[in-house]
Amino acid sequence: MVRIAGDPFFGANGGGIYNFKASFGRENTSMKNTGIALAAIAAAALILGPPAAKAGTLEDVKARGVLNCVVNTGLAGFSFTDKAGKWRGFDTDFCRAVAAAVLGGGDKVKFIPATGKTRFTLLNSKEGDLIFRNTTWTFARDVDVKLTFTGTTYYDGQGFMIRKKLGVKSAKELDGATVCIQTGTTTELNLADFFRANKISYEPVPIETNEEARTNYLAERCDVYTTDASGLAAARATFDKPDNHLLLPEIISKEPLGGVVRQGDDQWGDVVRWIVNAIVSAEEYGITQANADAKAKGTDNPNINRLLGSEGNLGAMLGLDKQWALRAIKAAGNYAEIFDRNVGPKTNIGLSRGLNAQWYDGGLQYAPPFR
Amino acid sequence: MASEATTTATSDDPNALLRLWRNKEARSVIIQVFTLAVLFAFLAFIIGNAVQNLARLGKTFSFTFMLEPASYDINQRLIEYTSRDNHLRAMFVGILNTALVAGCGIVLATILGFIFGVLRLSKNWLINRLVYCFIEFTRNVPILLHILLVHGLIVHIMPVPRDAWDVGEAVFLTNRGVIMPKPIFEDGFIWTSLAFAVAIVFAWGFRRWAKKAQDATGKTYPVFLVGLAAIIGLPILVLFVSGLPLSWEIPALGGFNFRGGLVMRPEFLALWLALSFYTSAYIAEIVRAGILAVDWGQTEAAYAIGIGPSRTLRLIVIPQALRVIIPPLTSQYLNLTKNSSLAIAIGYMDIVATIGGISLMQTGKEMETMIIVLSIYLCFSLVISSFMNWYNKKIKLVER
Description:
The complex is a heterodimer of chains A (371) and B (400).
Chain A: H1 12-15, H2 34-48, H3 57-64, E1 67-72, E2 80-81, E3 87-88, H4 90-103, E4 109-114, H5 119-124, E5 130-136, H6 139-144, E6 147-156, E7 158-163, E8 177-182, H7 186-197, E9 202-207, H8 210-218, E10 224-228, H9 229-237, E11 245-247, E12 255-262, H10 266-284, H11 292-296, H12 302-308, H13 314-318, H14 324-332, H15 335-342
Parallel strand pairs in A: 1-4, 1-5, 8-9, 8-10
Antiparallel strand pairs in A: 2-3, 5-12, 6-12, 7-10, 7-11
Helix pairs in contact in A: 4-10, 4-14, 10-14
Chain B: H1 2-12, H2 16-22, H3 24-56, H4 87-120, H5 125-139, H6 143-157, E1 165-167, E2 171-174, E3 177-180, E4 182-185, H7 189-217, H8 223-241, E5 246-249, E6 252-254, E7 257-259, E8 262-264, H9 266-293, H10 296-304, H11 309-339, H12 354-363, H13 366-395
Antiparallel strand pairs in B: 1-2, 2-3, 3-8, 4-5, 6-7
Helix pairs in contact in B: 4-5, 4-9, 5-9, 6-9, 7-8, 9-11, 10-11, 11-13, 12-13
């Protein structure tokens, strides 16, 4: 049964920026009214939807031989198509890891691009098996929209971008500023709360798509552009003169971004959750794409042996084989490799690990033990 | 079931059903009963399914969320509103914004439409062709593109606030809108408002009196000029006599933006202009058709009894043309109002963007908010059509 386009909190930061680079113009007009159209469809779906059939997603995916992964329509560094038309990015790498673990190949993925509004509908209508689309884990989405979040792949927060020539150094100096914002997202609510709490005035310019927000920001329709800090960095990387723009130091919200599956299928939720944990653990145990095969032959570290399947039988407990985690790591790399390849300091997006460092480096990335 | 019925009928009389079907009245009843049954079955199915699905999802159907804080800000608001106000108030802000753009749009589209319609009939070849090209271009490009085009032009071509184009240091044109002085009404302004009301009543009374006087004596009076003088002159006179209780707040550049004054935002301007131009092209064709529908003989007859050209147009041609114009004009007004929902494309905070957009996203009450939005558009449309139907009745041919 199709559940709701309309359900709460589409956007968020989750909403992130889609479309910055990869699909500039692609959904410009077509997505304009998707909001209302989808809401109408969702209402209609509530009325006409057939009763849901109960079947395990894991079996469905195995039978199909392809993983349907809902991703962003285009967000530099996170999910975008390169010149050869191949999907790349931080989020898409996690899709590939899941496909490799479950189906045996990192290319057995069908990417389903979705906007902030369409993503949950695509999941709930079973067009997608899971979502990796910079989606913020919130109470209402988890409880009220009835989704299951499979852990946090990227700890983000809402920030502000402004032109350097305006000479602003802090978000608290933004009194009277015009702020471009993606409408229907949690960023919109965070923004209202932040300015209200600091007793400063502003003028919101609500915008339907991020690509239009970018156009309006560059045309100086607004002084400030706000969304997730990662999204701002990705956006800035696509500007002609990135150095003319500054990210303000304030981060005004918590935006834990991660994978999402349908609520009620605990087995599938566990599979996705532990594949993400395997990727994070791999960094901790020093397993990389390059040395994974060697380490899989057996090491002195029982943790590594259990993870890579030379010891114990963790895979079978998930409904997978012994080499599930090995394949995931070989397909996508460990967490550090995925981060550095897509959004790290050496890319043009240039994000530092920050909160996303391992726990032993003072960050928040912490995988539960494999035993 | 059907086969059972057939069997029964067959056992009684093989031709009974066939004869019933061939009876015109009986057939009509059968078809109507069948249609109603299908309709009710369909309604029962969708309502039942909605109830069942809502229950399965653990969702309730209630409108109590309307009283919870909306938590979002709205830039253009005709009534006081902050992010702490509830969804209900946010909805009213949206309704007023929709009404504002639809109202302004209808007025401008009508004025432009009549002008273009008349110019289209001009004997001047150049004017005629230019208007023809404008109408064809406008009608054949989707309204959404018009809106995006105008918005893009305003945002990209107009200067930023620091380099604003000013008109007399009072009105400023920027890519963040047109900023105008804001009138500040002081205590004594009530007298001017009263004078305006009195002037309107006087003008209306004078018109009635003049008509009666003309019927009785055949003498004509300058109704339009007297009315205009009263409606404009009297309030101005009272304004000065009461000591000018009116001042202007002149916008000034401060910080990021202009402060003070009235702002017409690019989103409003784009939506208003695009809707007006688009609809005016249709209205122009309706007006042209209406005027052409009045037989030339009517004009000749008027001239023959010595009525001048302008009065012929005003008293003979237009009243007859209006009968042709009003019904399709009504549907253009309805189209314009409904097209204003495209506001969401450029972020104008109308009813769809507020209650049907952000509120829906934040609360997840898609059934409830969609029902509200649909009902509001229905109300707008019914109000417009009933007004236009009333007007249509008023001007229709009175047969004696």
